[in-house]
From TrEMBL:
One of its GO terms (biological process) is proteolysis involved in protein catabolic process. One of its GO terms (molecular function) is succinyl-diaminopimelate desuccinylase activity. Keywords: Hydrolase, Metal-binding, Protease, Zinc. The lineage of its organism: Bacteria, Bacillati, Bacillota, Clostridia, Eubacteriales. Belongs to the peptidase M20A family. Its EC number is 3.5.1.18. It comes from uncultured Anaerotruncus sp. Gene3D superfamilies: 1.10.150.900, 3.30.70.360, Zn peptidases. The gene is dapE_3. Residues 197-337 form the Peptidase M20 dimerisation domain. This is Succinyl-diaminopimelate desuccinylase. InterPro entries: ArgE/DapE_CS, Bact_exopeptidase_dim_dom, Pept_M20A, Peptidase_M20, Peptidase_M20_dimer.
Amino acid sequence: MRYDKELYAKHLQGMVRFPTVSNADPEKVDWETFLGLHKYLEETYPLVHKTLTKEVFGKVGLLYHWKGTGKSGKLPLMLTAHQDVVPEGDHSMWKYPPYEGVIAEGCVWGRGSSDCKSNILAYMEALEGMIADGFVPDYDIYLGFGYNEEIMGGPGAAGTILVDLLKSRGVEIGLELDEGGGIDQQGGQYVAQIYPAEKGYADFEFSMKDPGGHSSQPGEHSSLGIIGKTACILEENVLPQRLTKPAIDQMKAMAPFMEGELAQLFKDPEANWEALKSILAQNRTYNAMTRTTTAVTMMKGSDQANILPERSWLVINNRLLTGDTIESLQAFYESIVPEGVEVKLLKGHNMPEVSSIESEEYKLLHSIVEKKYPGITMMPSLLLGGTDARYFSDICPTHSVYRFTGMRRFNSKSGGAHQVNERTDIDVLEDDVEFYVELFKAYGSAQ
């Protein structure tokens, strides 16, 4: 198969030009833009659309299926990604317009260029090239492209719709891959950071009602004053630090690349837990690895300075570890907030199942990256954010749901996901396509 990074860049440019922004309010989404992207994919990858069946699920989700020969006996391979992107923000802050897909300075620039239309590109380019070469899989292949991943679920989540559809057809998955992870360098050595787990998610609203009135005649506390006090209480009562298996595995994998005291402590996190706790709490990333986090993110009172608010509210975002649940969080919050403050779950889910790092599928991923990067270290890690991969644990009996791509991440040219000047280095596109080509070839023969 011939790899062509310039062609890949051109095709990614075309995808970026569709501003597929998701919104928690479906009425505010331009669904026609998503349909435009669908048509572009059909035109750009004719062999994929001729060979695989395609159907639309939910609003504008895409499900592709390639029925293999079945000779391998393997459960299907599932690759997922999301079509939607986050809002682009202030256009004046972008070096190049966010939806033109400008190719400059060795990168494709624009919203979605890295998160995560580059994943869609890699899957489709790999399949288009392999079909042209006459490849036929001995197992089934599924591609699933959601459309509201960036709003983190809730009613109408595309991931739920897709998994329910597959369940209704009796489909089980042998390996599921989604965004996240990739090839890094640490201390001059190659590292494959792979995420067998991701944290749960919850948005809670804290609100208080009050008669309101004119600001010239305030009471002792306004409702916003009480809500402000609530924010302080929440920040002063964070959930305790805990060690979980994903964090333990990650620290042990990181130990050889660390220096000083942490290098020794990470070798055995359980034995060194008391010494580690205070150190980890001072680092945002390590802190988030070892506790359910609480972040006060939104607050509102009245619409004008001289009006006492009749209802004030704040919203916090939690990222949950195993052992904490949405139900336990709500009970805890109700026990510590001031009287009269109502606690309401807006949306959320508990931490999904942690996938195996002993499975044949995990070992297969290791063998593929080892072939390209001899001596590479696999670094299982806990994803602090979220992906659509979380929905697939229920239909993956091999416990092989991972967030990983074959893309090089030690190149400083790429970056900016969810920020201005999001871009992807053209050189890494070829690596990602090659990874999926090797995966499609090897999966059917893996034991």
